[in-house]
Amino acid sequence: MAFLGLRKWSTPACPISCATSVLRPMAPFLAASAVTFYLVSKMQEMGVRSEAYAKDPKNPYGAQIAKEAHH
Q1: Distance between CA atoms of residues 49 and 16, nearest Å
Q2: What residues are paired with 3 via a beta bridge?
Q3: Residue 19 and residue 26: Cα distance in Å, rounded?
Q4: Cα separations in angstroms, 9 against 20, 30, 36, 59
Q5: With bands split at pLDDT 50, 70 and 90, how would you rate the model's confidence at 1?
Q6: Rounded CA gap, 65 and 22, in Å?
Q7: How many angstroms from the chain centroid is the CA of residue 29?
């Protein structure tokens, strides 16, 4: 409900620019999510390929790591 013609959030009434009105305030969160996803995946890759777990039989990437090590 509008109070004196003002909305609680400054969203446009036109559906064309709704995408930008939603994405603009969420841009920092989307960027932080992308950075977090990238860093976590790199840390996981480093952990899987570490000396302690590279030869572990429970490592799902063990065969791939061993194949790359022979090259």
Answers
A1: 48
A2: 6
A3: 11
A4: 14, 20, 29, 50
A5: low
A6: 43
A7: 10
- What is the per-residue pLDDT across 4-22, written as a single tens digit (0 to 9) for each? 666 666 655 665 666 777 7
* Cβ pair 63, 55 in contact under 8 A: no
* Token pair in block for residue 4: 């004196």
Structure tokens at 39: 């860093």
pLDDT given for residue 35 in this prediction: 98
Alpha helices in the chain (DSSP H): 18-48, 51-54, 62-69
pLDDT per position as a tens digit, 33-59: 999 999 999 999 898 888 888 888 888
Length of the chain: 71
pTM of the full structure = 0.61
Looking at the DSSP assignment, which residues form a beta bridge with residue 6? Answer: 3
